[in-house]
């Protein structure tokens, strides 16, 4: 159907949604909670087939660092098409690939870039995780993997086994370790004490010959857990993990699929702590919104034979061109620093808003990776939410029904947000790094209004929510469509 034929009354959009429900897999996710049919997008604004406009704080699950249709990305794509360059080249060398690799290496932690190798993988982050696990197993001759509770590394078998929802140990060889989740500390102390206990637990387990950990080929972690609920790893704890793994010759794998390219306020999230991992897994934003995934690793690990890891679409020239343009634009325009400044402002306002609202258990994040964990204050003693200590607040259960209601209230107001966390009770914000000050205020206004509206709505905690009504989504000054 041509875009010009889409009506503004919503009838065509509803027809598309009905056909999707009839023909697509039951595994679809975003389409269930966000019944939007996008037809146009520019910057942070998405327009649906029914003519409604939304501010997009999902950004393709963080893949759109520069938002939709950024001019530098479009120009890079057009240049490849106009040159009639090949679009898929397997792992052959091309000028486009060479330029992308140059730009990528220019952004890496200096301690890694000087002696790095890069493997281009299949199109998704989960493919890069599989390659990283295969790499360290080949290099060390060991089979085990150290991973963390709450982690998410992808949906393929090996990546899923290392994610928090998979069973511990078993045939996958994965040993699960406690991640320092301050708000719901597994040791019920929180803060520096919780992080220290996590580090000690790791040391004791690895040094205990009867501890049950499969001899580890590597440790994989996210500097900020994204799907796990926007949980930043403390910088000191990350340095401890680096020391622990280095002392035992265990390669450290940093999964920067969602945290990379300026998202957290540093170009790579490991930069906050000064940690230099042995392996970095990169995807999402490095392709400028197109499918691209790579593994960057220390040259000493480069012992696998030709063909040990491959993939038909590892030579995506449009993605490499878009990715190089994105990396350069973020670097040259200091967008990581901008993300740190804007993110701090958003966190400050949201924390002020949360004061006295007991159903907001925690507000946390780093840069433009922000989460609000919603709880049920009626399920515990009065006064245990809000500004309570982490150990006491953990007694209150997460409230996924309320989070779903907030998501719908935000959609009604023209704001697209994501849910995450252990129980799906965390409102997640991943706006593009190009978000303007005006858009920042609009996001905060719509989010806080949606939060208050959800708690006032009878039955807000029900998972069976109606489709959203027409949202209030006026165009912002300066928006381009």
SSE blueprint:
Layout: H1 11-23, H2 30-33, E1 38-42, E2 45-48, E3 53-56, H3 59-62, H4 71-82, H5 95-107, H6 110-113, E4 116-120, H7 125-140, E5 144-148, H8 157-161, E6 174-177, H9 191-207, E7 216-221, E8 224-225, E9 231-232, H10 235-247, E10 252-255, E11 279-282, E12 294-298, H11 317-332, H12 335-354, E13 360-366, E14 369-374, H13 390-393, H14 400-412, E15 415-416, E16 418-420, E17 426-429, H15 437-456
Q: What does the model show?
A:
With 481 residues, the protein is of the alpha/beta class. The chain has two domains: 3-63 and 335-456, Aspartate Aminotransferase, domain 1 (Alpha-Beta Complex); 72-332, Aspartate Aminotransferase, domain 2, CATH 3.40.640. The chain is 36% helix and 15% strand. It has a seven-stranded mixed beta sheet with strand order 4-12-11-10-7-5-6. Strands 1-2-3-15 form a four-stranded mixed beta sheet. A hairpin with a 2-residue loop joins strand 13 (360-366) and strand 14. Helix 4 (71-82) runs antiparallel to helix 11 (317-332), helix 5 runs parallel beside helix 11 and helix 12 (335-354) packs parallel to helix 15 (437-456). Residues 457-481 are annotated as: Disordered. InterPro entries: Aminotrans_3, Aminotrans_3_PPA_site, Dat, PyrdxlP-dep_Trfase, PyrdxlP-dep_Trfase_major, PyrdxlP-dep_Trfase_small. Keywords: Aminotransferase, Pyridoxal phosphate, Transferase. It comes from Streptomyces asiaticus subsp. ignotus.
> Would you tell me the structural class of the helices and strands?
alpha/beta
Q: For this structure, what is the CATH homologous superfamily of the largest domain?
A: Type I PLP-dependent aspartate aminotransferase-like (Major domain)
Q: Could you tell me the number of beta strands? A: 17
Helical percentage: 25-40%
Q: How many strands, which pairing sense, and closed or not: the largest β-sheet?
A: 7 strands, mixed
Tell me what the CATH architecture of the largest domain is: 3-Layer(aba) Sandwich
- How would you sum up the global shape? globular
**What is the fold named in CATH at topology level of the largest domain?**
Aspartate Aminotransferase, domain 2
Terminal residue distance: 20 Å
Treating each run of at least 4 consecutive H or I residues as one helix, how many helices? 15
**CATH class of the largest domain, please?**
Alpha Beta
Mean pLDDT figure: 90
**Stretches where pLDDT falls below 50 for ≥5 residues?**
1-7, 382-394, 462-481
* Whole-number total of structural domains: 2
Give me the side-by-side strand order of the main sheet. Answer: 4-12-11-10-7-5-6
- Work out the strand percent: 5-15%
**Cα-atom Rg, whole angstroms?**
22 Å
């Amino acid at each position: 159907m041509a875009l010009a034929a889409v009506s503004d009354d919503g009838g065509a959009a509803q027809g598309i949604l009905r056909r999707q429900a009839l023909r697509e897999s039951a595994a679809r996710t975003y389409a269930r909670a966000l019944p939007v049919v996008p037809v146009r997008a520019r910057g942070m604004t998405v327009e649906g087939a029914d003519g409604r406009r939304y501010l997009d704080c999902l950004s393709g699950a963080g893949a759109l660092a520069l938002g939709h249709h950024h001019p530098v990305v479009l120009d890079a794509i057009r240049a490849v098409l106009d040159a009639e360059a090949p679009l898929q080249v397997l792992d052959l060398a091309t000028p486009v690939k060479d330029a992308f690799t140059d730009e990528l290496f220019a952004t890496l932690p200096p301690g890694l870039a000087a002696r790095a190798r890069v493997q281009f993988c299949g199109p998704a982050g989960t493919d890069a995780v599989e390659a990283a696990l295969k790499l360290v197993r080949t290099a060390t001759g060991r089979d085990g993997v150290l991973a963390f509770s709450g982690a998410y590394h992808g949906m393929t078998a090996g990546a899923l086994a290392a994610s928090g929802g998979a069973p511990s140990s078993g045939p996958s060889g994965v040993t699960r370790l406690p991640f320092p989740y301050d708000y719901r500390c597994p040791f019920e102390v929180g803060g520096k004490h919780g992080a220290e206990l996590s580090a000690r637990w790791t040391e004791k387990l690895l040094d205990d010959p009867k501890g049950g950990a499969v001899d580890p080929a590597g440790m994989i972690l996210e500097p900020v857990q994204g799907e796990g609920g926007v949980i930043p790893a403390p910088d000191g704890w990350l340095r401890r993990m680096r020391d622990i793994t280095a002392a035992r010759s265990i390669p450290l794998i940093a999964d920067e699929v969602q945290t990379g390219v300026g998202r957290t306020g540093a170009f790579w999230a490991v930069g906050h702590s000064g940690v230099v991992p042995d392996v970095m897994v990169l995807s999402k934003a490095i392709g400028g919104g197109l499918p691209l995934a790579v593994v960057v690793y220390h040259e000493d690990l480069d012992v696998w034979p030709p063909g040990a890891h491959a993939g038909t679409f590892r030579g995506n020239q449009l993605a490499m061109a878009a990715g190089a343009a994105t990396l350069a634009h973020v670097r040259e325009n200091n967008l990581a620093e901008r993300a740190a400044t804007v993110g701090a402002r958003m966190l400050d306002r949201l924390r002020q808003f949360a004061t006295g609202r007991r159903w907001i258990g925690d507000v946390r994040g780093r840069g433009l990776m922000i989460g609000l964990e919603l709880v049920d204050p009626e399920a515990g003693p009065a006064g245990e939410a809000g500004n309570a200590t982490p150990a006491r607040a953990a007694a209150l259960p997460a409230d996924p029904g309320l989070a779903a209601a907030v998501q719908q209230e935000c959609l009604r107001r023209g704001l697209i947000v994501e849910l995450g966390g252990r129980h799906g009770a965390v409102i997640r914000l991943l706006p593009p790094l190009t978000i303007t000050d005006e858009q920042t205020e609009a996001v905060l206004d719509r989010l806080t209004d949606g939060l208050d509206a959800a708690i006032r709505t009878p039955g807000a905690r029900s998972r069976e929510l109606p489709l959203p009504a027409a949202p209030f989504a006026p165009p912002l000054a300066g928006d381009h469509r």
